[in-house]
């Protein structure tokens, strides 16, 4: 298999996955509209805080710690093959830790009703009349 074949297979796989994802989402939303459900009624469609900074920061910190630990192991054992393993191990551990940190932060936002989007006062009356 040449590089063109691999690239075309990769492109078709990504394109097909994206197509079926968007089609399923569209079908689900059309079914919700037919049943009279609003997007706000479904908890999944509400805005949630995005903690990408926390996730990336903890990933970079974990990778750095993995490099540091791998350096000390390399100094003791003179084995450089430990670097990728330690970077992956500490990076993965930091992503697991970031999940728990994000969950804790999201609970704080939920208690403060931070992520609840409320309609503007002038549109609120029209929204209530439609229902």
Going by helix content, strand content and strand pairing, the class is mainly alpha
Instruction: Please indicate the percent range of residues in DSSP E strands (runs of 2 or more).
Output: under 5%
Number of strands: 0
What is the N-to-C succession of helices and strands? Answer: HHHH
Average pLDDT confidence is 80
Compute the number of helices.
4
Number of domains: 2
User: Which consecutive residue ranges, at least 5 long each, have pLDDT under 50?
Assistant: none
Helix content: over 70%
Alpha-carbon distance between the two ends: 60 Å
Overall, the morphology is flat
Radius of gyration from the alpha-carbon trace, in angstroms? 23 Å
Major beta-sheet overview = none
Task: Describe this structure in a few short sentences.
This protein is mainly α. It contains four helices and no strands.
How is this structure best described in words?
With 131 residues, this protein is mainly α. It folds into two domains: 1-45, no CATH class; 47-131, no CATH class. It is 75% helix and 0% strand. It is built from four helices and no strands. The chain has helices at 3-34, 52-77, 82-111, 121-130. Helix 2 runs antiparallel to helix 3. The longest helix has 32 residues, at 3-34.
């Amino acid at each position: 298999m040449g590089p063109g074949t691999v690239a075309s297979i990769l492109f078709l796989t990504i394109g097909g996955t994206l197509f079926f994802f968007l089609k399923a989402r569209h079908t689900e939303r059309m079914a919700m509209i037919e049943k009279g459900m609003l997007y706000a009624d479904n908890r999944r469609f509400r805005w949630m805080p995005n903690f990408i900074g926390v996730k990336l920061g903890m990933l970079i910190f974990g990778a750095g710690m993995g490099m540091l630990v791998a350096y000390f192991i390399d100094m003791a054992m003179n084995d450089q093959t430990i670097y990728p393993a330690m970077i992956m191990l500490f990076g993965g551990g930091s992503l697991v830790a970031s999940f728990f940190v994000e969950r804790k932060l999201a609970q704080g936002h939920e208690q403060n009703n931070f992520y609840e989007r409320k309609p503007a006062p002038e549109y609120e009356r029209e929204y209530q009349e439609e229902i």
